[in-house]
Write a structure and sequence with these properties.
CATH class of one domain: Alpha Beta
Radius of gyration: 51 Å
Largest sheet: 5 strands, antiparallel
Number of strands: 17
CATH superfamily of one domain: Histidine kinase-like ATPase, C-terminal domain
Shape: elongated
CATH topology of one domain: Heat Shock Protein 90
Length: 625
C-alpha cells in the first residue's frame, strides 16, 4: 500500500503538477444519468478510469473500448491489465503503479506492442488525489502513435535489438576466448604435471602451479601413511619472496588447527572445496614469529584449498594463496582450481603406480636371482656325489673289486641309468640358472638349416626304432640359411624331438621341416602324439610345468626342457611356439632370423649343402624331401 502523503509533501508539488491533477469523480459519479459520462462517452480521445491499487476498471469510453477491442465490448469491474496483451501488460502495470504511488502525472509514455506490425500506443496517466492526499482513482488516456512516432519507435526497437545482439555476440566471443585460454592453460599444466613418472618430481611440478588473477603461488601438503602431513617445497615467482619462503625451512608446517591446507580438508570430510574465510588473517598466536613476519612481508590474502584424492582416499591438498588484497576466490577460480587438482591427482596416481610397478619388478628380479643362485649352488653340490656314484659303478662293472654276477650287473645298469637321469636333471637346472643370469655365451653364425636339422635327427635315430615310431623325414629346401648358435639350435631341436618321442605312442609319426619367410626361418617338429588342451599351451614353456600331474608318472621330468629351449631361442633373436590339440598331436616351431644375401659366402648353394636324398631312417623311412 502506498504511504499517505503529508501536508509538507503536498506543498512541495509544483504548480504544474497541481494543474495536471484531475479531481476525478468516484465510481458513483459515473452513473448513466450523469452529463459528464455522456460527454466523455462521445469524446474522440480514448479515456478510462481505474480504482484502487488493483487498478480495477470502472469506466472506459467508446473510443477506449474500440481502440483495444474489435467489437467495442469491454467488461467493467476487472483489473485493467486483462485488456492488454502480455508484453503490454507489464509496461502498463508499471506505469499505473508509479502514478498511483507517487501521485505524479506520467505523460505520453510508450506502450510497446506485442508484434512489430501492431499499433504503437502512447499513454498518459493522471492520479486523482483525495483531500487527505491519497490516490483513489487514475484517469488514463490512450492514443495511437503518429506515423513519425511509429517510425521512431520501430527504429528504436531495431536499434535496441541490434545493440542487444551485438552485446550478446561480444559476450559469447569473450566467453569463448576465455574458455579457450582456460583450456590452453589446463593443457599446458597437465602436460607439465605428466612430464615425469617420478612422484617427487611430480610434486615439484605441482609446487609451480598458480591460479591466474588470484595468486601467483601455492603450496602442497601430502598426507603420510601415519596420518601426519608434510608440506612440500614452495615455489614463488618473485625471487625476493622466494628467499623469505626458503628461510622458513621446517618452521611452517601443517598443524591440526589450520583454517587451510590438508587438516582443513580432513575436517571438511575431504568432499568439498575448502575456502579460507574472506576475513582470513594470519593467526599470530599459532604461528612461529619468524613465519608470521615472513608471510606478512610476502602478503597473504584469501586461501583456496582443494583436496587431492588418489585411489579413492585423500592423499593431500593444494592451497592457492591469493594476493594480499584478494579476499575471495570467484566461482571461475574455484572451478579452475578443481580442474588443476584433477590433473594433479591423475599425475600422482600415475607416478605412484609406476613406482609400485618398479618396486614389484625389483622384488621379483631379486627373488629370481636368489632362486637362481640357490639352484646353481645346489646343482653344483649334487653333481659331485652323482659323478662319484657313476665312477664307482664303472669300477665295480670293470670287476676291479672282484667278480660281478649277471644279476649284479643288471643292478649296476639300473644304478647307472638313475645316476645319468639325475645328472641330466641337474644339468637342466644349471642351464636354466645360467640363462637366467645371462651367463651363457653364444656364437652366432650362418647356419645351413637342412644340415642342422639332419644333425639333430642323427643324434636320436636309434631311439625311433626302439620306441616303434615312424620318422617321416626331414623336409627342407637346401637354400635355407639362418642366423644362430649351432650348438644351441641343435640343443633346442634335440629337446623338441625328445619331447615328441616321449608323448607319441608306438606307430605314431614324427617329422621335421625347414621353411623360410622374408626375414625369418622356421624349424618345425611335428608329431601325432597325445597333444595338449588349449589352456595348457600358455604354460608349458614356464619352468617346472608338467603336462602330466604326476612327476613320477608315465611322463616324468622336471619340466625344464621347453623353458630352457624357449629362453635359448629368444636369446638368439628368435622364439619357440606351439600348436596342439588333444589327440591330434603337436607342432613346435623354432623361429630364427634369416641370413641375408650379403652375409652368405660367395659360393653356389649346391656346393655348400649335403644332399639328403639317399639317407634312410632306422625303419627304412625316407629322410629326404
Amino acid at each position: 500500500m502506498p504511504s499517505p502523503r503529508t501536508a509538507a509533501d503536498q506543498s512541495r508539488v509544483s504548480q504544474v503538477d497541481r494543474a495536471d491533477r484531475v479531481i476525478a469523480p468516484t465510481e458513483a459519479r459515473f452513473s448513466a444519468a450523469g452529463s459528464f459520462e455522456r460527454l466523455m462517452e462521445h469524446l474522440p480521445a480514448a479515456f478510462a478510469v481505474t480504482n484502487g491499487m488493483q487498478h480495477t476498471l470502472v469506466y472506459a469510453n467508446a473510443a477506449f473500448r474500440k481502440l483495444l477491442t474489435l467489437d467495442g465490448d469491454m467488461r467493467m469491474g476487472v483489473p485493467i491489465e486483462s485488456v492488454f496483451a502480455d508484453n503490454e501488460r507489464a509496461e502498463m502495470l508499471a506505469l499505473l503503479d508509479r502514478a498511483f504511488r507517487s501521485g505524479l502525472v506520467s505523460r505520453n509514455r510508450t506502450i510497446e506492442p506485442e508484434h512489430e506490425n501492431d499499433l504503437l500506443l502512447r499513454c498518459t496517466v493522471w492520479p486523482d488525489l483525495t483531500a487527505a492526499g491519497k490516490t483513489d482513482n487514475l484517469l488514463i488516456e490512450l492514443r495511437a502513435a503518429t506515423q513519425d512516432e511509429q517510425r521512431l519507435g520501430l527504429h528504436r526497437r531495431v536499434a535496441e535489438r541490434l545493440l542487444l545482439s551485438a552485446m550478446r555476440e561480444e559476450e559469447a566471443a569473450a566467453v569463448s576466448h576465455a574458455s579457450q585460454l582456460v583450456a590452453q592453460f589446463l593443457e599446458a599444466e597437465g602436460g607439465r604435471l605428466s612430464a615425469s613418472l617420478d612422484e617427487d618430481e611430480t610434486l615439484e611440478a605441482m609446487s609451480h602451479m598458480s591460479l591466474p588473477h588470484f595468486g601467483a603461488w601455492c603450496f602442497v601438503d601430502v598426507l603420510e601413511a601415519d596420518n601426519t602431513a608434510t608440506r612440500h617445497s614452495i615455489v614463488h615467482p618473485d625471487p625476493a619472496k622466494q628467499k623469505l619462503l626458503d628461510s622458513l625451512g621446517e618452521r611452517w608446517v601443517p598443524t591440526a588447527n589450520d583454517d587451510f591446507g590438508i587438516f582443513a580438508v580432513l575436517r571438511a570430510d575431504a568432499k568439498s572445496t575448502v575456502i579460507a574465510s574472506e576475513d582470513f588473517v594470519l593467526d599470530a598466536s599459532s604461528l612461529d614469529p619468524i613465519v608470521l613476519k615472513a608471510l606478512q612481508t610476502i602478503g597473504v590474502g584469501a586461501m583456496l584449498t582443494v583436496p587431492l584424492h588418489v585411489g579413492g582416499a585423500i592423499a593431500g591438498a593444494i592451497t592457492f594463496v591469493g594476493e594480499g588484497d584478494r579476499h575471495r576466490a570467484s566461482a571461475e577460480e574455484v572451478s579452475l582450481a578443481h580442474e588443476l587438482a584433477n590433473r594433479a591427482e591423475m599425475a600422482i596416481e600415475r607416478a605412484r603406480l609406476h613406482g609400485q610397478a618398479i618396486a614389484a619388478m625389483d622384488r621379483a628380479e631379486s627373488a629370481n636371482r636368489a632362486k637362481s643362485e640357490f639352484l646353481g649352488m645346489m646343482s653344483h653340490e649334487l653333481r659331485t656325489p652323482l659323478n662319484a656314484i657313476g665312477g664307482y659303478v664303472d669300477l665295480i662293472a670293470m670287476e676291479l673289486r672282484g667278480p660281478v654276477t649277471d644279476a649284479q650287473r643288471k643292478d649296476l645298469d639300473r644304478i647307472r641309468s638313475s645316476q645319468r637321469y639325475l645328472l641330466g636333471l641337474i644339468n637342466d637346472l644349471l642351464n636354466l640358472t645360467k640363462i637366467g643370469n645371462e651367463s651363457v655365451a653364444y656364437e652366432i653364425a650362418n647356419l645351413d638349416a637342412c644340415e642342422v636339422l639332419q644333425a639333430s635327427v642323427t643324434m636320436l635315430e636309434p631311439l625311433f626304432g626302439q620306441k616303434g615310431l615312424i620318422f617321416d623325414g626331414v623336409f627342407c629346401s637346401n637354400t635355407i640359411n639362418a642366423r644362430g648358435d649351432r650348438e644351441r639350435v641343435i640343443q633346442i631341436l634335440v629337446n623338441l624331438l625328445s619331447n615328441s618321442m616321449k608323448f607319441t605312442t608306438a606307430n605314431g609319426h614324427i617329422r621335421v621341416d625347414g621353411e623360410e619367410s622374408r626375414d625369418r626361418v622356421m624349424f618345425r617338429v611335428t608329431d601325432t602324439g597325445i597333444g595338449m588342451a588349449a589352456d595348457k599351451l600358455g604354460t608349458i614353456f614356464d619352468p617346472f610345468v608338467q603336462l602330466s600331474d604326476s612327476l613320477t608318472g608315465k611322463y616324468a621330468g622336471m619340466g625344464l626342457g621347453l623353458a630352457i629351449s624357449r629362453d635359448l631361442a629368444r636369446a638368439m633373436g628368435g622364439d619357440l611356439t606351439v600348436r596342439s590339440a588333444p589327440g591330434e598331436g603337436s607342432t613346435f616351431t623354432l623361429t630364427l632370423p634369416r641370413t641375408s644375401v650379403a652375409q652368405l659366402p660367395g659360393r653356389d648353394a649346391s656346393e655348400r649343402r649335403q644332399n639328403w636324398s639317399n639317407e634312410r631312417g632306422p625303419g627304412g623311412e625316407s629322410l629326404s624331401l
